[in-house]
Write a structure and sequence with these properties.
The two termini are 27 Å apart. Helix 1 packs parallel to helix 13, helix 3 packs antiparallel against helix 4 (109-123) and helix 5 (131-137) runs antiparallel to helix 6 (140-162). Strands 8-7-15-16-17-14-18 form a 7-stranded mixed beta sheet. The relative contact order is 0.21. It has 13 helices and 19 strands. It has 2 domains: 2-46 and 62-81 and 195-249 and 318-375, Rossmann fold; 85-181, no CATH class. The chain is α/β, with parallel strands linked by helices. The chain binds flavin-adenine dinucleotide and uridine-5'-diphosphate (UDP). Uridine-5'-diphosphate is lined by residues 87, 96, 153-154, 157-158, 161, 173-174, 176-177, 274. It is an enzyme of class 5 (isomerase). Keywords: FAD, Flavoprotein, Isomerase.
């Protein structure tokens, strides 16, 4: 077989690059995907009870980038959806990001009023404060509050999810879910938020439905690559696997999802509920809240963090911390040496904790670089 480009992986990174190369540069593209479906971790499907589920954990689309939103809007309409999450603290389900509503749900009215006043005096209203910053800068009663939130919302969950405490990770990890001095219960405040109206998989099908794109499912690229003639490859799998782990394995966290279908319309009040150390799982997910599907049944999933074994487990979360970045940089240097033949991009190939919109933005930026290279005079 002869093609212009081979793309390994059909998640948002691979699908965006395949679509752009095919439609904008009229290139022949072969997408090779080792799973039996397209979409990477954003894949969704109907389960045996007819409920639309997200096989690899709930995926909520949110972005501030009009470029990304407009790009994807060519392939889908959107169902407006604002994600809400609760975390169980002292047996109560309260909003997370921890906000003023959480404060009032957990403390007696008078004390909550005092803490609210102190928070606003110190930081202002409608301000987001990462928990590690709150801990450093708070004193007196606010230091008590910071410690309470740290212990109950962050420490337990983070230990279970990452097997590291928040201080052992890049500060950006817990800063994704800052304490929010407001009454806004939404998980994200991005300008654009929603779910693909008919699901993620139809969105991917439309992205890849181009006469210049061929798709090979159930195939590890290593098993077939010798039989394919191609100009260049874009690889979106784990970068250490590409180089046969020559510098050692990059650490990841993986998850196990346990699905359960119940004969009731809804199980919980919002799409995600987070749990601390007292439970073996970190989250209970209920995708009907996200998809808006009407059914007398519902499917929920329990999320259990698990040890990752390179080559065996699904690499779900790169672990953002300095020593891992150093190891990644060794692989990045290897990638640099072969960039004329292979380009690396995506959450696994860049070893970066990208959200979906960041994966698409990264792919669109890489595509621009490819255009510049391909159209540059000899
Ligand atoms: P992936 O989606 O991982 O795709 C990589 C593909 O490459 C996979 O399909 C894999 O099978 C394939 N592949 C790997 N190696 C090979 C090989 N050797 N041969 C052939 N194929 C190969 N983002 C959000 O914005 N909102 C959310 O709510 C959200 N929730 C998430 C929840 C979980 C549990 C996880 C793990 C991630 C979540 N994300 C979320 C992040 C989102 O999944 C990623 O940003 C996105 O999937 C990145 O796309 P990608 O194409 O880079 O990688
Ligand atoms: N986090 C936490 N408790 C929560 C929510 C988040 O400790 O109730 C921390 C935890 O370390 C988590 C990180 O914040 O991994 C980022 O959370 P996010 O919801 O962004 O994680 P993701 O959706 O990517 O799994």
């Amino acid at each position: 077989m002869k093609v212009d480009w081979v793309i390994v992986g059909s998640g948002f990174t691979g699908a965006t690059l395949a679509e752009q190369l095919a439609s904008q540069l009229n290139q022949n593209v072969l997408v090779i995907e080792k799973r039996d479906h397209i979409g990477g971790n954003s894949y969704d499907c109907y389960d045996e009870h007819g409920i639309l589920i997200h096989k690899y954990g709930s995926h909520t689309f949110h972005t501030n980038s009009s470029m990304v939103w407009n790009y994807l809007s060519q392939f889908t309409q959107w169902r407006p959806y604002f994600h809400e999450v609760r975390v169980v603290v002292d047996g109560k389900k309260v909003p997370v990001p921890f906000n003023l509503n959480s404060l009032y749900a957990l403390f007696p009215q008078k004390y909550a009023e005092k803490l609210e006043e102190l928070l606003i005096q110190h930081f202002g209203f409608n301000v987001k404060v990462p928990i590690l910053k709150l801990r450093e800068s708070a004193s007196g009663e606010l230091a008590f509050l910071a410690d309470y939130i740290y212990q109950n919302v962050f420490y337990k969950y983070t230990m279970k999810h990452w097997q590291l405490d928040p201080e052992q990770l890049d500060r950006s990890v817990t800063a994704r879910v800052p304490v929010y001095i407001s009454r806004d219960n939404r998980y994200f405040q991005d300008k654009y938020q929603g779910l693909p109206k008919h699901g993620y998989t139809p969105l991917f099908q439309r992205m890849l439905k181009h006469p210049n794109i061929k798709l090979l499912l159930n195939t590890d690229y290593r098993d077939v690559i010798d039989q394919i003639q191609f100009k260049r490859m874009i690889y979106t799998g784990p970068i250490d696997a590409y180089f046969n782990y020559m510098h050692g394995t990059l650490p990841y966290r993986t998850l196990r999802f346990e699905f359960d279908t119940l004969d009731q319309e809804f199980y919980q009040e919002v799409g995600t509920v987070n749990y601390g150390l007292e439970y073996d799982y970190t989250r209970v997910l209920e995708q009907k809240h996200l998809t808006g599907q009407k059914s007398p049944k519902t499917t929920i999933s329990y999320v259990y963090p698990e040890e990752y074994i390179a080559g065996k487990s699904d690499p779900y979360y790169p672990i953002p911390r300095e020593e891992n970045k150093e190891l990644y940089r060794l692989y990045q240097a290897e990638a640099e040496k072969i960039k004329d033949k292979v380009l690396f991009a995506g959450r696994l190939a860049d070893y970066k904790y990208y959200n979906m919109d960041q994966a698409v933005a990264r792919a669109l930026t890489l595509f621009k670089e490819i255009v510049q290279e391909e159209t540059k005079p000899e």
